[in-house]
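Lest this sound abstract, we let one protein speak, letters for residues, whole numbers for local backbone shapes, and leave readers to judge:
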Amino acid sequence: MKDYKQQAEMIYKRKSVREFSGNPAEIFENGYNLMELFGVKPLVDSIKVKVVTLKKDKINNKRSNYCIAFYSEEKPMYLENTGFIGQQIDLALQSKGLGTCWWGMKKPKRAYKNIEGLQCVITMTTGHPLKDEARVYPDGFERKAVKDILLNETQPDRFIEAVRIAPSAVNLQPWLIEKIDGKYNFYIRKPKSIMEKMVSNMRHIDMGIALAHFFVLAKAGGAEPHFEFEGKDIEQGKFVASVTG
């Protein structure tokens, strides 16, 4: 059974790791299916995905011995789905003492850019960290204030806080949240800077990462969150998903 409580604890401790020891890790050497091993749930069941562990020679990875590559068919919500899956793996690996770091600009060598007709969306370096990389909550997180991600009279709670401290590309934190009668509506903030426009795809992956934090925390508390993907855009941003349960 998946240990959601252990992974939920990592929401407040995880840190992107960029220096690795180079020591071999059994979990990768034995070729485990990480989605099956950790009981990872997709955000959208109908999107075909594949998660593959690549050795460094297949991706020109000088950071670590291993890199996780996320492949997907390109359907609506495939970027959010990739982030949702990847962040569950991120939390699971870090809960086992391994380090991870989303690597938005690094893609595998040509022979591995496409697997079973699926395109590589993003990669994640991983392995044994060179040193202890755990954060101290809350001072270890440089994030926007709660008021900057909330809409209307939404009151902050532990789920909103878990989203607030989620990792994002260039720490742009593109999420906006409103809570109405127990339903959480998520929007992706309209891009305003050149940087935000440059990492457009990453911002959608980041929304999936944020939703994964919400999901893991809810499951750790015994809830069964339900996602809906039909909603209205607002002036400040584009609708992504609603969560209840």
Remarks:
- The first strand starts at residue 49 and ends at 55.
- The helical segments are 4-10, 26-29, 34-37, 78-95, 158-164, 194-198, 200-220.
- The beta strands are 49-55, 66-72, 99-103, 114-115, 118-127, 175-180, 183-189, 226-228, 237-244.
- The chain has two domains: 4-127, 146-244.
